TrEMBL record:
Protein name listed in UniProt: Fucose permease
Keywords: Membrane, Transmembrane, Transmembrane helix, Transport
SUPFAM superfamilies documented for this protein: MFS general substrate transporter (SSF103473)
Keyword Acetylation recorded: no
Record-stated family: Belongs to the major facilitator superfamily.
Its membrane topology: Multi-pass membrane protein
Domain Major facilitator superfamily (MFS) profile: 10-407
Superkingdom of origin organism: Bacteria
InterPro entries the UniProt entry points to: MFS, MFS_dom, MFS_trans_sf, MFS_Transporter
TM annotation in the entry: 48-67, 79-98, 104-124, 144-165, 171-188, 209-227, 247-264, 271-292, 298-324, 336-356, 376-402
Location in or out of the cell: Endomembrane system
Amino acid sequence: MTQTINKSALFNASCFALITTAFSFSISAGTLKSLGEDLGYTAEKLGYLNSLWFFGFPIAMIIGGLIYHSIGPKKIMKIAFLSHFLGAALTLYAIYFVSDLSYAILLVSNLLMGIGCGCTEAACNPMIADMYTGDKMNKMLNRFHMWFPGGIFVGALLSELMSTLGFSWQSQFWLIPIPALVYVYLFNGKTFPKASVEQASSLSENFKAMLTPLFLFIFACMALTAITEFGPQKWTGLVLESSGAKPMLILALTTGLMAVLRFFGGPVTSALGQTGVLLLGAVISTLGIYLFSTQTGVMVYIAAIFFATGVAFFWPTMLGFVAAKIPKSGALGMSIVGGVGMFSTSIFQPFIGSWIDDDIAEQTALGLTGADLDLAAGQATLSTMMTFPIILIVAFTLLFFWQKGKKPAAVAAH
């Protein structure tokens, strides 16, 4: 019996799921400083809170990729909803407990929200890749992933508005379940697509495809593209607070522009090719982070434009590359690549926090205080973060010539 797939409904539901992920990212980023001040946490302790969000994400993605073809994306998305809702609720009530217990609850809440976000990626990426092929797949993956920066844009503006109106940092977390309720409703009762490549549903074929040099290369590169994108964004409130620009407006500008760019990701990828998009992105993101680390005032907004343009296509293009060039890796391959990106970001969060603490101590020793101290320390940390895209320039130059002239692997027609 032929399946009737409502592609539009499934795609729209996936977008609301990604908006939920984006809300959990932007609201936690926007409230990070207030949370730290209220509870007396150092930047390093805040880094561990961040890292649990990014740790839960890849764990859920990898497990979701392993069980995608056995339990289906619908059940994975039910887990996502429960995790999103419980994570937000625990964050809201954590402050009412004694210090050590409240910190433990916040660690759990960040882990749960990360799990919810990872389940979203594990279910929706392979589903979209199975519904569309070729240039259409690149287009729809970009349009799906536009809702991550798009959701961050909306979440950042709502967070800034609620803070201005005097709402507590805890109350802002109740925004997260709103789009979650929408995606649960849209997914309900829908038929989901089967794998577009026969071997993609075989774990043995998945692992065989993931042991190829090309997959391992992309695996390593994804760790660097993810931290290039999420490192500066997650710490916006702390590292740019004294730059003369509003951190949440910088986050909103960056993510808003990324969303617009991803909407046009299909034509851009068709014109430059996947490897061309990745290489150009590495160059421009390096320039963007350099400007962040050296400029103040209005120029910080210019830096945000360069940064957003550089990182906009990284995530959907990396996943699209795996789907197009290594299709036999299946849902698991896409989840592994996405998972390593988030796992890398998780690992680096405490390091970034400690870089900030060290740079503050170093600049304090030089006699700086107040806003001058915060600015110098923030710019020094951003300068260190610039290492990631510089390595990517070299890596994607190699990938560009490695894949030059090669066509995507054949997949079933849709």
